[in-house]
Queue: 4 jobs
Job 1
Amino acid sequence: MAKISKKRKEALAKFDKTKVYALNEAVELVKNITYTKFDSSFDIDVRLGVDPRKANQMVRGIVTLPHGTGKITRVLVLCTPDKEDEAKTAGADHVGLDDYVERIKKGWTDVDVIITMPSVMPKIGALGKILGPRGLMPNPKAGTVTMDIGKAVAEVKAGKIDFKVDKYGIIHSGIGKVNFTSEKLMENVKEIMSTIIKLKPTAAKGTYVKSIYLSSTMSPGVQVDVKSVS
């Protein structure tokens, strides 16, 4: 059995793990039980009543958080020369095509998001085995395959994230930093939950949102009353 650290024991002693908290209480608790020395991420885990193995119950979406994620997002744009200036002006960290395709083939993936154009996708498709497992493969549904390169880059830099339910029926996403104010964190929570609720598959039966937990890097999870996020 893994040994529980002193700081984790202190964190666990500050709240009741069996209790379901209102959103404002849960946010304050997570901020209070975070004991890392670095600026921890603030995360949400949402368990849904769906069967992700069935295509008509897959939940995937994009959302622009009102206060961003607090994370510096490194963006690579793979585009034709005529779109390079647009990408650079919007704030892309890396812009190019063939040279970056070759670098990726050799194992380079030091970015957080890759944005590209429909006409370039045949070249990107060959990188699927490298980019797919890292969650970096551009996808039209996530807004990362588009002709409007500048807008896509600006949105990602402003806090746009994409999410999807995993094989266990859970959506996990970082939605801020613990040093955000409680008000900003609550607004980010409500924004992503509003989007998730709108994406409820018609094939999903019974309770859609089964549970919501908030946590930070290495902190225990705090359960949130689903009704308090609406």
Job 2
Amino acid sequence: MEFYTELIKGLWKENPIFRLVLGMCPTLAVTTSLENALGMGLAATFVLICSNVVISSVRNLIPAKVRIPCFIVIIATFVTIVDLVMAGFAPELHKNLGLFIPLIVVNCIILGRAEAFASKNSIFLSIADGIGMGLGFTLGLAILGSVRELLGAGSLTVWGNLKFTIPGYNDPILLMILAPGGFIALGIILGLMNHIQAKSAQRKGTAMPTPVHLDCRHCTICKFGA
């Protein structure tokens, strides 16, 4: 039951993008298409799961004073694997994502889960956390990427030539695939999710849930650096 709880929390309750509001730089930069969003999400999920497992395994061997540098070295190892594999087998996607693949090393979602969860829990639960948060991140990117590509280009690119086009959509909203469109789409989706959560709480007769304690304002990485 605890495994299942950790597995599903990233999909809604603690979604990295829409609830914790983490990883905004790659979120806004790569979601110009569904293909880019899925590529980034799956890459981050792989790194998240693997780094969680390793960090949980060696958590009692790492001195507290050097834990953050050690976490970064572990994460960088898996990011390098992803970068090389993607460059070899999906060069076009690798080119589109560009610098944002290496920057997974310092992604606050990856570091945050390493510090807040994997370093304090068993391998079993760390796997569930990595899968759940990774899928939540991928889902968030996919939703945002789909909205922006559909409105901004009138199409939906899943992978390579696998592309769906809206018939008769001859006047796309170009703004949506530009930088300002990312902020607009993200703001609308965040507002919609807050509205749904507020209505749900109202139906149950409870107060609107407070922000999750692991969101960006309570980041343990930032507190450590300070």
Job 3
Amino acid sequence: MNIIRKSFTGIDLKKDKPGAFTARIATLNIIDKDGDVTLNGAFPNGKEILISAYQHASWQGALPVGKGMLREVGNEALVEGEFNLNTESGKEHYEAIKFSPQLTEWSYGFAIKALDEQNETWKDNPKVYRVLKSIDVFEASPVLRGAGENTGTLSIKSDKELTFNDEFEAVLVTNSKFIERSKGLVALRATKGKELSATNEEKLNTLLKSLGDLQETLKTLPLKPDPFDAKLFLEISKVKSKFMEELNAL
């Protein structure tokens, strides 16, 4: 299952009930930064979902920090939820967001159930990548910055650097998502009788070259690398191979 994430700002912390909140996670019927348009009725209205730990960390094993209910109100998709203040992580998330609610963005993980490729309003707009008619949402999470419109936080400094292993895992996830996005873009343009633009093809080639440069660097590893180095070399090789398949399919 291909899980996609989008992010938006907008949260209201309930003064009469500690831990409770309402977050805007989508603005409907506009083109977002991914080139997607999400239509009214696309969200599973009334579905209860978990609130993931910061930056969707629950996908990597962190315990959820709360729960919420999906609601569509006008052209907005909302999560009415609450943090679990009986857990340390739930309290930390609540206090962190309460400190700067206007800077907090929210992201949701979803899978596409149906596209509206014949939509008269959007089908001829060159800026539109997909028109989402129906999606299934699994969780929502506070994040730094995402693909949605009306985002607020642009950057943040931290005195805690990512470990090499953490950054490695993040790169693998990003590459996997980008490969799937590339496949979708090629397939979509093919249905319209169009080829990938020269600009986008050049971008793919640039990324492929950078992966090749990294692979050449990894060839300088000792003859008996430690297990992580061996894993890194193998995964980079796989990523490069996938991008080669993408380019050959253009």
Job 4
Amino acid sequence: MIRILTLCLGLLGTAATADTVRMAVTTSFENSGLAEVLLPALAEDTGITVQMLVVGTGQALRLGEAGDVDAVLVHARAAEEAFIAAGHAPYRREIMYNDFVLIGPAGDPAGTAAAAEIIDALDAIATTEAVFVSRGDDSGTHQLELALWDRAGITPEGAWYLSTGSGMGAALNTAAGLDAYILADRATWLNFGNKAGLALLFEGDTALFNQYAYLPVTLAQDPDLARRVEDWLVSDRARDLIDGYRVAGEQVFTFNATPE
């Protein structure tokens, strides 16, 4: 499902006069709350309104391939590089990063908190057949999850493995309802209201690094507008907002854009 959100300053006349860029973004970018900080500031500084199409990374790239958006902001490098190789974007520009964390029942029946690496934690879940909720939506989170199962030598299947085909927030709601394990990005987890009996159980593995990148779409209706959005996203103003954004008092994104 595609959710379309338009965030701008809301000043009198702004929406009517501003240029508009259609950008496909990951559900985690929107669920984290960062979009509500960045996009009004972008509109204030540039006069450009961003219309977000909130989807998983796979669907965001398909929208770009079809020319239905002007840019994408996603987090699955291998898929991004394939997108570029196919001619759908000229390049990718890294903007910021955070990390993924393993969430699960506070009692941790699979013993994941004692794992040395994330693949050991997943092996413990599969061995005990503790319920695991997968987004199952070809998002960046889902693609990483599948890659980690593959590294662990596990094919996740059976009654214990539930694929929801949903965004990060909805998948977390399912995990909360089932008292299940789930892989989530840190920002969405901290910003998530319905934690129920869940807790952060495993973190810190370098395999859980989560890079976000901006890709201007080759078939963009107005490449100049897409480039102006990119220029703002790598600016000092964006850096200060990204690094300064806090959820529950914790910094959840780190700006790492570099000059061209």
